[in-house]
Each structure stands twice: as C-alpha cells, then as structure tokens.
Predict the structure.
Amino acid sequence: MICYLIYPLSFLFPRSRRKYAFGSFRGSFNDNARYLFIYASQHTDRNIRKVWLSANRSCIKKVRSYGLEAYWVLGPRGIWHALTSKYWFFNSYTSDIMFCLSGGAVCINLWHGVGLKRIEFNTVSGPLADRFNKRNKKDVFCHPESFRRPDWLLTSTPFQTSMFAKAFRIPESRCLEMGYPRNWILTAKEQDRKQFISKYEPQQTAALTDKIKDYDKIFVYMPTWRDSQRTVFTQSMDLEQLNGIMAKQNSLLILKPHANVILTQGTESLSNIILADPKMDIYPVIPYAHVLITDYSSILYDWLLMKGKDVILYLYDYDEYVKDRDFYYPFDENVAGKRVNDFDSLCTCIESADYTLPEKERERIVKKFWGDTAGYDSAAMILDFVKTQRPGR
C-alpha cells in the first residue's frame, strides 16, 4: 500500500539525463545490468553519473569494493538517485531497483535470456498464466512491476523481437536489437577476461578458474529453473556415479544451480564435482569449460556464441516440463546438441564422448537467435543509443 501511495509522487521529481541508475533482481550484482554498468563506469563521459542501486547491503558493499558507485536504495541517497535518474537499466522489472520510485524514468529492460520458452504475457499455461493472462487479482495487486511496460527492451534478432514485443505488450519499434552486454566475457580476448576477473570478480571465481587447469576436460551443468528444484536440483542424477566417471577421465563437473535454488546439499566428499554458489556469476568461468549439460535453459544460446564447444541436452522430464512451461517456437527445430533422455544415457554419452557439436549446427542457431548482434559490442551500442537518441517515454 505504501508503494501505491508513493508511485504517483515519483512522477513529480525532475530527472537528469546525465544520471543512469542500474539494478538487478533480488538486489544482486549480476547479468546484463552488471556488465553494462561496469562498461559505462569505464567508458562513458565522466559528467554522466552511473549508480548501482540495491536493497541488499552486502551487494552495495561488494560493488563499492570494486571502486564503483553504489547505494542502498532504501536509504536517503539511494532514494534520491532513483528519483532523479532519467534512465533506469535493469534485468527483469523496475522492482530490480524499486518500482514505486520509477515514475517518469525511461525504463530500459535488458532482460536475461533469449530462448524458446513463453514468458510474461505470452504465457498460456502454468502458474505464471494466472498472473499475466488470467489476471489473478492478488497477483496483479502484489506485482505491479510485472504490468509496467518497459519503454525500451533489449533483444537480438527480428526472430526474437517478435516474441518479446508481444510478451511485454510493446511495439517492435521499442525493441533494441543489440545483443546482450554479458556475452562480451564469453568471447573476450584472454588478457581482457583475466583483467576483468582480477578487478571485478570475487576470490572464489579466480580460485575456480585456477582449479580447473588441473583437469583435461570441464563439464558444466546448468539446468533451467523448476519449482521442484527449490532445494535440490540434482534429483535426476547419481552424483557418486558421475564423480566416478569424471575421475576416470580426469574431468571436472561444475554444478551451477539457478539463482533461485537454496542449497541444502554439498559436494565436499566428491573429488571431481564442484557445486558453485547459485548467486555467483558463472559467465567468466564457462569460457574455460568444454561441454555444457543443460535442458531448456537459455544458457544454450549464449554458450553457442563460443566456437569449439560441445553440448549435451539432458531432457529427462520433457513431457512433464512442457505441461507447465510450453515453448513459443518448436523445440526440436531451435536447439543444438546431443540429446539424452535419462541418466543412464547421460552417463553413456559422457563416457563415450559422443557429444561433438557440428560447427554448421552451431552457426545455424547463432544466426537465428543472435544474427549480426553476435559480433556487436552491445554495451557500447546501448549507451550510444541513449546518449545520441536521448530516448523519451
């Protein structure tokens, strides 16, 4: 109720075009907004103020430790910067900063993944359909940020723009086909990547990149989010058996849960499997991996931007999954990788190394989902658009 009272007042504040506010979901420091913020802090006009806003105090402390400007959005300075920044950049919704302070801001939604799954107002089944299409009164009242249309939305190709425009109820002309800032780290020069890790990553990231040098091959398992995996996301795997396979090959398996997962398990007793923190940014690490194990996650499309990488699609619950989250485009036509449907097949695939991805298949998907934006300097293009076009609402 307080939010609803404050929101109209936020339209009254004069907003400076020389002030940019950034934020991410659950107060974290990650994804496209993080990479755009870092780039902006390094490369844009010093007269343009760039601030990271978060409701998480530990996040603010971390961002400041990198020499960047950050404020607690619930404090006086954070509220002031949120109310006076003309441009807001975020990964999901205005609630990434604070919805009730967004009136009058030009809201640029960077989103967090291209892919096949229906999202937002394209959703026709599952729990999210209650909010976006059935308009459940409680959901609508409690999540006004879901219904605030972005002024601009970051996409990649016309193929994706068509879907995203409908999902967010905006014209296609309001979609910026410029690719994703976070993907820079995947294809960056090794020297630039190392400098980034040294300057903007916690010690655990550097430690992990050092550790994987001891192995002949690195696998990373990154499944999509499922409600059933809130506390355990490896219920479809026998980790002891997988660890034995990895040990025989002198390979390492990195398990990277979705950020929503609450860890109640560990892998300390396993020699060749590491459980990564769900909230860590895995993107600086995966360029050093060789094989991605995933399912319906949009990580597949980012991964395919890197040449010479292989993919295993572990689709153990396909029939069950599509009942709750159907696809906007046909699944089979829009993925690439070796498909396995059960755990035994997964083990056989890994043991036999039967997962080589043909380069033509990789190029086909990249062209469809990224097009020319695969080679764009996304962060530079977004900031140039804001500076030169001075987009309004």
Summary: The CA atoms of residues 118 and 289 lie 29 Å apart. The two ends are 26 Å apart (CA to CA). The first strand starts at residue 16 and ends at 23.
